[in-house]
TrEMBL record, chain A:
This is ABC-2 type transport system permease protein. The lineage of its organism: Bacteria, Bacillati, Actinomycetota, Actinomycetes, Actinopolysporales. The chain crosses the membrane at residues 22-44, 85-102, 128-154, 160-180, 192-211, 239-258, 296-315, 345-369, 390-418, 430-454, 461-482, 502-523. Keywords: Membrane, Transmembrane, Transmembrane helix. The keyword Cytoplasm does not apply.
Automatic annotation (TrEMBL), chain B:
It comes from Actinopolyspora alba. Keywords: Antibiotic resistance, ATP-binding, Nucleotide-binding, Transport. GO terms for biological process: response to antibiotic. Belongs to the ABC transporter superfamily. GO terms for cellular component: plasma membrane. This is ABC-2 type transport system ATP-binding protein. PROSITE patterns: ABC_TRANSPORTER_1, ABC_TRANSPORTER_2. GO terms for molecular function: ATP binding; ATP hydrolysis activity. CDD domains: ABC_DR_subfamily_A. Pfam families: ABC_tran (PF00005), DrrA1-3_C (PF13732).
Length: 531, 308
């Protein structure tokens, strides 16, 4: 098998290059799943609480977003884990697999590094094989880790059920590793290969959502559906895993066939060509910034509109649940308010406000990303564009984007809630409530700009701050974090509309803070070297 | 056009990056209307100088004037009058080359479409391709077309032809000559000596952040040695005592030596006095000329030799 020569060495090379990235992914997925599972007993101590939860989960919006809800008649912790965490964790594992595989196959080839290796003693199929071996290996390790760790974190979970559940996750990851291996052969560029594989992942999540809502047929077309149909923790059965194995083998066969039929560096689908001249819209730094974040902004907006609609839909049901659940009621009372549907919506909106801070950091962080990629040099060095105009134009795009994202969330939630409550005026009230988080979101953009001006290499630290804010925002009331700490978060000062009273002063103070941070950052940027 | 006789004047410029002395008292003077070569070994400080001229970096000390303005304070006004091509053009991966050229042109207040079309044709560049898919040479062409189409007073080019094939290199040379005919000034940093020889009126050579030589190529040649080989009628005497003679080898009536070019006259007199049967003399090649300036690093070891 001379086409495989060098595979072992390449596997070692991948493991060495990703000695931080791979453990970080494994740890990230484990913390997401195990961390969430660990909080289950905190809010849902009694069987009655869990039954109430089952009733809450049994509505169309939740079924589409989570899972088919096996074992709802006796909603054990195990059934909860499988139903509520299974789908999302599978998506996470699949994303990890897609990104890792494309990184070590198509991206490598694109960078020309493969050519360097192939010119040596490495066989034609070795790079793809090495990437597959590594990523499938990562899935197996992750599966074993989760399978054995779940019963440790929550002793009510059976070992057999946990192993089956984790095997389902590893199966989804393996299938999407193989999917990515195929798209990496078809597409000329890594980004396109990731995009194509991720679209298939989204499709398979949507298929199982539609299937779970209906009679379940469509779910059988989705690897995520297969993993959920192992009915782990309920009346487990392993054979749907075999469907995944069969599909993987088939896809891998296709990938290697495609690989041996194409040239190094070539794809079967050629990249689309662009415009020969710029449209009238692309004429300055602001429209350039919008253009560069078009994809990101579209993704965030769609996501927030959908999640907003979900929040609007479950508001009423969730409120009933909170009324009947002692622990959850205490949680929400400490988070500030009465037990109505609107409190529920307000709570979700504040969570979404914090998450929208992620958009602000990503968008404002573009200043640093563009600078370190060397793409500002031709703009600032070769055209009359000034530094402050360039930076402020980028931030103006961040501002518009944040309005779009939070506005989308508010409209989604508001329109659906107006529909379910039968009161059209609710739409505007909820939209207003969502927009009230904007000044706090801008403070984060300001922080990113400040770091960009003062300590450009440390712009990424702003993400650490956001992590802290989200953590305190979510778990602060539960963990009784003292006020003087939780008040450091800009989001702590936003009135929880529509239930709380609207007070303009904190919002104005937040907006002024954002302006101040931005002004200092831009002023310092004007005076420093471009790096 | 600019009536000032010098487009760029730099004296005693210094710039440190932490412990690295990137520039250590650099001087540079570019006359209006000339093509000025900016040469030196890797890490000599050429790009750093250029980035200071463009207002991207701030000098630690020294004087820098650009088109009679201050490169840092008057950056935006000055940039209307200059165009710049970096040695490694990085583009926005999801914009096409045509979009990038138009965007840069619009930021300057518009470019001549005919000029752009003409340059696209001459450089054989497909403007529809996404920047992500351009090869190194084609990325470089995008930068060149954007700069050359923009009709500036001064063109600042930092190794602009890296990655261009020989055919495109020739196109580039034609374009630079045309720019010069149209009265523009060009500052060209390059490692390609034939390019420098073909285009530059004057050159400045820098090493370890300092200017080591500046002048026309003829003047620089004058500073180096010519190798002389001669067959004489009789064995020469007293050649070794003449000043400016090096590496003298005499085998019977056959003579080989290296002569400092200013002393060539005296040496030839001495030879003809003995009687010359045949004579070949070779001016230094450009390579020899530059290598001599580049290599002195080891002889005059400066502390900046510790430039990382
Ligand atoms: N941003 C920076 N941070 C630290 N050191 C730098 C930085 N930029 C340049 N240097 C250092 O300054 C010195 C001069 O670099 P410069 O890029 O100006 O050289 P150059 O003459 O353009 O070389 P080349 O011919 O390789 O392009 C080098 O020692 C380099 O390592
Ligand atoms: Mg350089």
């Amino acid at each position: 098998m001379s086409t495989l020569r060098g595979t072992g060495a390449l596997v070692r090379l991948i493991l060495r290059r990703d000695r931080v990235r791979i453990p970080a992914w494994i740890l990230g997925v484990a913390v997401f799943l195990l961390g969430s599972v660990a909080t289950f007993p905190v809010a849902l101590d009694s069987a009655a609480d869990r039954q109430a939860r089952a009733a809450l989960m049994n509505n169309p919006a939740t079924v589409v977003l989570t899972g088919p809800g096996f074992g709802q008649r006796d909603y054990t912790f195990g059934a909860m884990v499988a139903n509520e965490m299974g789908g999302m964790t599978a998506v996470l594992v699949a994303l990890m697999s897609i990104l890792l595989l494309v990184r070590h196959s198509r991206h490598e080839e694109e960078s020309g590094r493969v050519e360097l290796l192939r010119a040596g003693v490495v066989g034609r199929h070795a790079p793809l094989t090495a990437a597959l071996v590594t990523v499938i290996g990562v899935n197996l390790v992750l599966g074993a880790l989760l399978g054995f760790a779940l019963p440790v974190v929550l002793p009510e979970l059976s070992t057999a059920g946990s192993l089956l559940f984790a095997a389902g996750l590893a199966m989804v990851g393996t299938v999407f590793t193989a999917v990515a291996a195929v798209t990496a052969q078809l597409m000329e560029h890594g980004r396109a290969a990731v995009g194509a594989a991720a679209s298939l992942l989204a499709l398979s999540y949507a298929l199982r959502g539609a299937g779970d809502l209906g009679d379940g047929t469509l779910s059988w077309l989705s690897p995520i559906g297969w993993s959920q149909r192992t009915r782990a923790y309920v009346d487990g059965t392993g054979w749907p895993l075999l469907l995944g194995v069969a599909l993987t083998v088939l896809l891998l066969f296709g990938a290697f066939l495609l690989r041996s039929r194409r040239d190094e560096g070539a794809g079967l689908v050629r990249g689309r060509s662009g415009r020969a001249t710029a449209s009238a819209l692309l004429s300055g730094p602001f429209t350039l910034a919008l253009r560069l974040q078009r994809g990101v902004l579209t993704g965030w907006t769609i996501g927030f509109v959908l999640f907003g609609a979900f929040v609007g839909a479950i508001g009423e049901q969730a409120a009933v649940f909170v009324r009947e659940n002692e622990m959850a009621r205490r949680y929400f009372e400490q988070a500030g308010g009465a037990d109505s549907a609107e409190t529920m919506i307000a709570t979700y909106l504040s969570l979404m406000g914090m998450v929208a801070g992620g958009f602000a950091l990503q968008s404002a962080g573009l200043l640093r990303a563009e600078e370190s990629a060397g793409r500002v040099e031709p703009l600032l060095g070769g055209t009359p564009l000034s530094r402050s105009r360039w930076a402020l134009s980028g931030l103006a795009a961040t501002l518009c984007g944040s309005v779009l994202v939070m506005g989308g969330a508010g409209l989604g939630a508001g329109l659906v809630y107006a529909g379910t409550s039968g009161d059209p005026s609710n739409a505007a009230r909820i939209l207003g409530a969502a927009l009230a988080y904007l000044p706090a979101v801008w403070v984060l953009a300001g922080l990113s700009t400040l770091l960009f001006g003062v300590l450009p290499g440390a712009t990424g630290l702003s993400w650490l701050v956001l992590t802290g804010i989200v953590f305190v925002g979510m778990f602060g009331p539960l963990l009784r974090v003292p006020d003087r700490i939780s008040d450091l978060s800009p989001f702590a000062h936003v009135p929880m509309l529509p239930t709380e009273e609207f007070t303009p002063v904190p919002l104005l103070v937040l907006a002024a803070t954002a302006v101040l941070l931005t002004a200092i950052g831009v002023a310092r940027y004007r005076r420093r070297d471009t790096a | 056009m600019n009536s000032d006789p010098t487009a760029v004047t730099i004296s005693g410029l210094t710039k440190n990056f932490g412990p690295t002395h990137a520039l250590d008292g650099l001087d540079l003077s570019v006359r209006t209307g000339e093509v000025h070569g900016f040469l030196g070994p890797n890490g000599a400080g050429k790009t750093t100088t250029i980035r200071i001229l463009l207002g991207l970096l701030r000098a630690d000390s020294g004087e820098a004037r650009l088109l009679d303005g201050d490169p840092w304070h008057d950056a935006t006004e000055l940039h209307r009058r200059i165009a710049y091509v970096p040695g490694d053009v990085t583009l926005w991966p999801n914009l096409s080359g045509g979009e990038v050229i138009d965007l840069l042109g619009r930021l300057r207040g518009g470019i001549d479409q005919h000029r752009k079309e003409d340059l696209l044709r001459r450089f054989d560049l497909d403007p529809r391709k996404k920047a992500r898919t351009y090869s190194k040479g084609n990325r470089q062409k995008v930068g060149l077309v954007a700069a050359l189409a923009s009709e500036p007073e001064l063109l600042v080019l930092d190794e602009p032809t890296s990655g261009l094939d020989p055919l495109m290199e020739e196109t580039f040379r034609e374009c630079v000559r045309q720019q010069q005919r149209e009265g523009r000034t060009v500052l060209l940093s390059s490692h390609i000596l034939s390019e420098v020889e073909a285009l530059c009126d004057r050159v400045t050579i820098v090493r370890s952040g300092r200017t080591v030589e500046s002048g026309t190529l003829a003047e620089l040649r004058h500073l180096t040695r010519t190798s002389v080989t001669a067959e004489l009628s009789a064995a020469p005497e007293g050649l070794a005592e003449l000043s400016g003679v090096h590496d003298l080898e005499i085998t019977g009536t056959h003579v080989r030596c290296e002569v400092d070019t200013p002393h060539l006259d005296g040496v030839l007199r001495e030879l003809t006095a003995v009687g010359v049967r045949s004579l070949t003399s070779q001016p230094p090649t450009l390579e020899e000329l530059f290598l001599r300036h580049y290599e002195q690093r080891s002889e005059t070891s400066t502390p900046e030799g510790a430039n990382r």
